[in-house]
């Protein structure tokens, strides 16, 4: 009976700290004077790492947090499918990893064979409302969508061993990130094989009042209205609709969620244009209990749509 | 679209802090000069509170953390059923509340009508291995089982509005606490209507070596061996077995758990004596992912066995 | 290894045939010349029986099929909660028992303690479209709703050992029977503690064309329009709404069901009037796979709302 | 509101009858005088067909029932992965299709994208105990294992468009067929990518009494003993074990199943030799409720292990 076994998350957290902060630092120091390949072997377990990119579009460093599956460092020849997992309003790149046991769930599903090993990355598009920018769309002073597609994604896929095609790329997100995921997949169906939208902020009524460009909260609300996923389909021509049908869609929203009606309308709009889409309404509201349990269906859905 | 809605756990944590620490302090200050009933109304949502009891048996203050369901403070006449929820080795009274979203799950299941409002309390029987005592049984220098039944439970049920009978009392736990829950229900089937054992440390081989009474880890291992739940049934007379049949039993353990074999043997032993018991083996091992998901079946099982 | 164990449904079917047809017949013959209580004991397992009632309202014999839980015949003093389970268009009283393994599911959930022993009865309100009457409402020539409330329910509850109050009575159904269940619970919230609506035909557009009273299909469509569950709430005064809030509501409908939109509107209408209601949208369409799996949530929901 | 929609299994059954019996007969008659490709198109939905093979090993015609996925007949160039799905003692090739809604479940999971389109075939190895042969192993007078591997499988895969390699072939079964599936995959790990064992009869104590070769029930019991899946692993050399590790294993058995202990021992034996295996113990016993619900995990498991 291995009494010494200490069954807490803290051990994992500590492991990850060591692996993502301390070990890389040691490696960096060490490598000034030696060939790393000689006597260092990277661990075979999964790693969560927070890193950053210097964006010329946004004119600042932007953080992202990435999950690298077990085996990523030991087998340095394989490429991996990738999930871009978007956080919600006022959340950051850390939220999916701190408010839900994302890495532990991904590990377990991988070990059980329910998902393929995949890279999961969550870039920062949020923070403190009012003070920080929030949002996945282009806004006056904050061209995040340009950043995502022209800087972040290409750079990330050149640095990490991502397979780099539609068949091995997916997008998902919750709330503001659910809307972002839906909109990104709508505008770039050639890039994403599947999209899983949780409690998605997919639509907002347009505000006709004047918006002060320093009101960051009003700007994101306006951006969601301008990028309405419902209007996008309503206005699409047949060629665009045909492209939308090449993406596997899944909407997952709680029966007590304040975004339920918007998500239902989004589903109806897709159905009316013969865009196949899964819909699930489960018990729950707009919180981390819901999004944590959603990972158990989201990751397998995404994985089985990787080719 | 309530953009102001901030969907993080932090808000709940903050609410709970306010409710469990700040508000009671304010109430205490305030009540020196006024009649509280006049103009103060307690909140109607659930509360998590950490409190302590001065034990004469253990000769020290012992902490416990308790979940009080929504409505507990607004309706001061009702009594509630109670679940004693035991933590594992090296964990403490906080673990069920910090490592799993226990309060949020209990809230959601209550709101959905899947469970009855209930009090859930987790007393501290652990801490840092070697330094702190760990264990639910009587050991030289640490008579925890006496404390639990002679001090803690009677005092708790006199202070909190617990119905106070077998039909409205349950016990559950994980690992060391799973073994504790099983053993407590075996020795006191007149007290508990149901017992839910997760990844239960229900048995240990006896150690014939001399044990130094200052070796707290060896002592708890020995105590588990001496209180083996498997031997208890094997040695029971028919009258004892008949009493064991008055408890509803449920064992829930992962297929990769190092305690799987012990829990299977416990189940077999019960089955061989016609003690009805549910058994579930789900995907997983000895970790908080497993115990978190177990709450979704444990709480409904416990609730429907309340009368 | 009990090789003789034959694991097919046929054995159960045969058992039920013996119990519901052959045994009663033998008992009837036997009892001409003997005191049955002397030497006959009824079985302790569950029984499915098809029986009939001579309706003066409908001017004909009407069939119903009833599930009596294990223990019903051995303990002749207890009363039981009852579920009225309504079939769909073109189905009959047999459909819930032949197209889904209703009795086996009820047996298993009872044995596992997930539901309380309950009586489940499905009266015939259907048959071959065009030839037979279909529908739960009053129509010219077919006052089924009067029959249900004034004849069938009172008679059934006087003949079978039903507790006979709101707290121990529930209603559920699929499709046309889902609409029937919703409407019956709306009009008689004093009779039903809970209502579970599967793929409910809860609304139909009104037809302004002349309807020939011999067109039985047009009549049922018109009756559903006139008894729209959505309009009922929209038109209700506050006192009626308050009564509706005394029922526990649950809507369960597939994402590919042609009645999805109607059920969503019904849910929205209830939500807008603060009538608490669970909503689930699962994978599936308008078929027996869906309704079979729905039983695993419907029966526990109904059971935990019995008092 | 498509009232004309008749939601019963009977329509599907009728469709399948038409498709599997009547339509092929018409096609056969028709094709005497015409080129079928000119004006006949095969349906795009799934088909269940019962067919037979003239076995020279068994010296008789043997039936099998096969599920062909939607699209099989319209796209005549693709090959499909195949699942060999074995029935239980006293069951036949029809049992998986008549006692469980296998085709409907496979259709739904395929449409929802949870499984890949696959061929599922169940050959007859059973019937009336005593009168008919039962069993998947070679017995005096009934060399079924030879038939399966030397006649049935090669012939089936030459007639149906099966991909025909380990990566696209799986085996599964219930009870006697669960034991058969386990044993077949043990002896031929080069043929099967995965094996899903439900309530598996994987072991039997050896009988030392004389067995009359006309006692077909005693013979199958003896054959299971001689082909014990537990002994097979215990006796295996390292090279054999390494081959067993190339198969994905899954054991699924009810907590009230009389074969629970045997299946647990089988799992333990595999674990002790580091053969990865999933184990699930769910609520239930040895019946079709269990095997029906098992299909919802078995088919996805099998599908995701197809390459």
Q: What attributes does this structure have?
A:
homotetramer; 307 residues; alpha/beta; two-stranded antiparallel sheet; 10 strands; 18% strand
Radius of gyration of chain A: 20 Å
- The tally of strands of chain A reads 10
Low-confidence parts of chain A: 1-40
Major protein interface: A-B, 38 and 38 residues
Helix content of chain A: 25-40%
Largest sheet composition of chain A: 8 strands, mixed
Strand order of the largest sheet of chain A: 1-2-4-3-7-8-9-10
Sum up the overall morphology of chain A in one term.
globular
Provide the succession of SSEs of chain A.
Answer: HHEEEHHEEEHEHEHHHEHEH
State the distance separating the first and last CA atoms of chain A. Answer: 42 Å
SS field, number of helical segments of chain A: 11
Strand share of the residues of chain A? Answer: 15-25%
Mean pLDDT of chain A: 89
What is the assembly state of the chains in this entry?
Answer: homotetramer
Structural class of chain A: alpha/beta
């Amino acid at each position: 009976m291995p009494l010494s076994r200490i069954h807490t998350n803290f051990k994992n957290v500590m492991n990850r700290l060591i692996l993502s902060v301390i070990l890389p630092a040691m490696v960096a120091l060490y490598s000034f004077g030696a060939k790393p390949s000689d006597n260092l072997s990277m661990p075979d377990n999964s790693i969560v790492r927070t890193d950053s990119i210097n964006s010329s579009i946004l004119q600042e460093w932007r953080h992202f947090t990435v999950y690298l599956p077990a085996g990523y460092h030991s087998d340095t020849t394989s490429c991996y499918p990738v999930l871009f997992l978007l956080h919600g309003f006022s959340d950051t790149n850390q939220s999916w990893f701190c408010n839900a046991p994302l890495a532990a769930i991904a590990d377990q599903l991988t070990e059980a064979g329910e998902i393929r090993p995949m890279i999961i990355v969550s870039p920062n598009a949020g923070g403190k409302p009012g003070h920080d920018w929030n949002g996945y769309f282009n806004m006056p002073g904050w061209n995040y969508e340009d950043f995502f597609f022209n800087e972040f994604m290409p750079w990330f896929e050149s640095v990490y061993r991502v397979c780099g095609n539609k068949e091995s790329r997916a997008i998902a997100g919750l709330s503001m990130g659910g809307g972002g995921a839906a909109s990104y997949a709508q505008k770039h169906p050639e890039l994403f094989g599947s999209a899983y939208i949780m409690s998605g902020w997919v639509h907002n009524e347009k505000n006709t009042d004047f918006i002060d460009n320093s009101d960051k909260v009003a700007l994101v609300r306006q951006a969601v209205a301008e990028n309405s996923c419902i209007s996008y389909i309503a206005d699409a021509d047949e060629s665009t609709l045909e492209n939308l049908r090449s993406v596997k869609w899944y909407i997952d929203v709680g029966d007590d969620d304040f975004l339920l009606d918007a998500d239902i309308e989004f589903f109806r709009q897709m159905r009316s244009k013969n865009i196949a889409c899964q819909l699930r309404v489960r018990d729950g509201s707009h919180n981390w209990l819901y999004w944590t349990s959603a990972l158990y269906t989201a990751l397998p859905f995404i994985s089985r749509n990787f080719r």
